[in-house]
Specification:
CATH superfamily of the largest domain: Lipoprotein localisation LolA/LolB/LppX
Structural class: alpha+beta
Largest sheet: 13 strands, antiparallel
Number of domains: 2
CATH architecture of the largest domain: Clam
CATH class of the largest domain: Mainly Beta
Order of helices and strands: HHHHEEEEEEEEHEEEEEH
Distance between the termini: 22 Å
Number of strands: 13
Strand order of the largest sheet: 6-5-4-3-2-1-13-12-11-10-9-8-7
Number of helices: 6
CATH topology of the largest domain: outer membrane lipoprotein receptor (LolB), chain A
Helix content: 10-25%
Strand content: 35-45%
């Protein structure tokens, strides 16, 4: 969950018991965006089109639609760097409550043990294991950030008794019937998105920067299913107050509201988040508690094998 946190803005036998708890693992106290490989590719496309006015017009229209968002935005980029830089912890252990509410106000509540740790190269690893209720107990989700290529995501379902790897193009799928996607759970890659400053606005009496994020390439678009995300960022504390998510048809279909932030020892992140599917009126609230930062966590838990053994 370090992705949303930062945007709202980052002995194995001991762990075989199904009653796995965070403390037990503490080892001590619009359309697909056409990808461009480089700016030179854009320049080459425009150069080859200069032989005719119509071709040039077409190339310019194409460049304005897809290329310009990939250019650095002198106003948006520093703001987003500051927002993303708030989550500077190297490890985190917490309890998470996930509350699912349908359009009839019927609720289902899940209790989750949450573990996150950066490796020696700064790549994030994240494990979420469901503790209750009984019908989802033991279900686990693991995501491993990779510096090159797509992140790895694994899902363990006790009923199937096997670990399944989620395809890299499946990040936009719903995480355990919630309104959060698999892509929302994990560490964001700064280079995956380009940012554009839209305007200064006001949300619930607070001045906010409104910034649009767009996939930097077609692979990110296919993985997330988001054509863009609009962030509303507090101008004083540089906290994300709200986010709006747009599908491939450029229609808004989800909205995230950050209800609370956790602050301690210079660290802060969104600790209470409400994601709503605006099409069907379904919502998912994720609330963090019993938070512990920068305590050692056994590296062995961040492996697909551990998902199978810790049933």
């Amino acid at each position: 969950m370090k992705k949303l946190i930062k945007h709202c803005l980052n002995t194995l036998s001991r762990f075989h018991s199904p009653n796995l708890s965070p403390s037990a693992l503490c080892t001590s106290t619009t359309l697909p965006v056409t990808p461009f490989s480089s700016a030179s590719a854009s320049a080459s496309a425009l150069s080859s089109a200069s032989t005719s006015t119509s071709a040039l017009s077409l190339a310019l229209a194409f460049a304005l639609t897809f290329s310009s968002p990939l250019l650095a935005d002198e106003k948006a980029d520093p703001i987003m760097d500051r927002v993303l830089g708030k989550g500077s912890w190297t490890s985190m252990i917490a309890d998470v409550q996930l509350t699912l509410t349908n359009s009839r106000d019927e609720q289902r509540v899940r209790q989750i043990a949450f573990f996150s740790k950066d490796d020696d190269q700064g790549q994030n690893r994240l494990l979420m294991r469901f503790q209750a209720p009984a019908d989802v107990r033991g279900t686990a989700f693991l995501t491993l950030e990779r510096s090159s290529g797509s992140d790895e995501r694994y899902l363990y379902l006790p009923a199937m008794r096997r670990v399944s790897r989620i395809a890299s193009s499946g990040g936009g799928g719903n995480f355990m019937s919630s309104d959060f996607s698999y892509y929302d759970i994990g560490e964001p890659a700064r280079e995956d998105w380009s940012y554009t400053y839209l305007r200064l606005d006001n949300v619930d009496g607070q001045d906010v920067h409104v910034i649009r994020a767009q996939p930097a390439n077609n692979s990110v678009f296919e993985d997330t299913g988001y054509s863009s995300v609009i962030y509303y960022i507090d101008t004083t504390a540089f906290r994300t107050l709200r986010s709006e998510y747009f599908d491939k048809h450029k229609q808004k279909f989800k909205e995230l509201s950050v209800l609370a932030y956790y602050e301690k020892d210079g660290h802060e992140f969104a600790s209470d988040m409400l994601m709503t599917d605006t099409r069907i009126g379904h919502s998912s609230r994720m609330t963090f508690s019993s938070i512990s930062l920068n305590n050692p966590v056994d590296d062995n838990i961040f492996t697909p094998r551990f998902l199978q053994r810790a049933r």
